[in-house]
Amino acid sequence: MESRTFRNAMGRFATGVTVITTKSGEDHHGMTANAFMSVSLDPKLITVSIDNRANMLHKINQSGKFAVSFLSDKQQDISMHFAGQANSGEEIQFDYIQQIPVIQNALASVVCDLDRSVEVGDHTLFIGKVVDINLTDGNPLTFFGGKYGKHEPVEYV
């Protein structure tokens, strides 16, 4: 099977949009990702999947900490900025939780200590032990078939 076919099939799974952030020295680093999942409630663990060629891989390994911010439907520009798809010239303003940068006004920001990492194929799975969380109200930014979208609740009859 061709890689493009596989990628197209994976794009048929609707996801939320996140920005993964970390701080290495005085430098802030962020990247857009939708490869995120909750792993465990006890202990509280999450995982993100990062391409082995991404700069973020080395930054998380250096800092030993990272955050995942779940974007609202009003934050598509932030997603595009960290995906390298748009640069408005505006500097991104961060909030800080446990001295780790997080996206302001994200629906949730989950701050983690790096628990372990596992190289799998051309990606590395970073498993984070959750140390803090911030929540706000709003609606999620979604991604499906290579396009951004908004959540539409389904009414049950």
From TrEMBL:
Oxidoreductase among keywords: yes
Organism domain of life: Bacteria
Name of the protein in its database record: NADH-dependent flavin reductase
Gene Ontology process terms (BP): pyrimidine nucleobase catabolic process
Biological source species: Virgibacillus massiliensis
Flavin reductase like domain boundaries: 10-150
Keywords, in A-Z order: Oxidoreductase
GO molecular function: FMN binding; riboflavin reductase (NADPH) activity
Gene name, Swiss-Prot/TrEMBL: nphA2_2
Keyword Signal: no
